[in-house]
Amino acid sequence: MEKVLILGAAGQIGTELVNTLRATYGNDQVIAGDLLAANLSEPCIQIDATDEHALRELVTKEGVTVVYQLVAMLSATGEKLPEKAWALNMQALFAVLNLAKDQLIKQVFWPSSIAAFGPNTPTLDSPQMTVMDPTTVYGISKLSGELWCQYYHDKYGVDVRSIRYPGLISWGAEPGGGTTDYAIDIFRSAKKDNAYTCFLAEDTRLPMMHMDDAIRATLELMNAPKEQLSIWTSYNVSGVDFTPFELAEALRKHYPDLAMRYAPDFRQAIASTWPQRIDDSQARLDWGWQPAYDLSDLVQDMVEHV
Ligand code: VAH
Hints:
Blueprint lengths: L3 E4 L4 H14 L4 E5 L9 E3 L5 H11 L3 E4 L5 H6 L1 H20 L5 E3 L2 E2 L23 H20 L3 E2 L1 E3 L1 E3 L12 H12 L1 E4 L7 E5 H13 L11 E2 L3 E3 L1 H8 L7 E4 L3 H6 L9 H7 L7 H11 L1
Parallel strand pairs: 1-2, 1-4, 2-3, 4-5, 5-7, 6-8, 8-12, 9-11, 10-14
Antiparallel strand pairs: 11-13
The site of (3R)-3-hydroxy-L-norvaline (VAH) has 12 residues, from loops.
């Protein structure tokens, strides 16, 4: 029976992953860990994901077998605190990779991002293997982390698996300082004010995904037979891609008089370095990835729950 520890359990992905994994393995088999533990449900622990000693004590005491290491400072916040973002994102990854290297745990999940691509990455149908020249600290940490995951797999036999998440759209938890957060904020703003001022230009196309698809992709990858997998950096996966204009048009099916304004800020310069659409054929080939939500489904679900 697996015993799972989720680090970053209070975050956008962690909040959803805790619920899904508890439904799969049983409540007591999934420990929710975060520095902000106040709102976590039991079993939970307040823990610093960069504190390797505390992690070693915890996984040994609790018999943890799998760790989902979700802690990171995202793209927009990371540009305001570059050295803190690098330190946090890398130390949190190494702490868990070293637990696996020392065989204290048997499997690791760590999220990468389309932010690991850059301005010279082919912007449409960005391949699994391609030019990667990220220009944000967050993207640099994700690209570096991918290469370290592959190194620990190849050199120490660590079973660490990863997905390059696109922008994730969910209603369960507040977004956490990302460049794609507009695609979450717009739903709350439309419901409250029937209006939204978008911090990206209306034609900024980005790869996005409903959180349900992201969680399912994560568990399908983690449960895939190891011999089926060919990528030990991080897998491309795609859901949908859209522009703020297209999202607003889809939202107007529910809010016909939605007033949209566009006021690009510093996050436009970040979004402009990212691809518009991702080629996820390797994930489809290796472990049968197939998204379920299109833009209309995504908007319908968000409108129903926000
Ligand atoms: C961010 N939501 O905007 C994250 C994501 C693809 C972007 O990694 O930083």
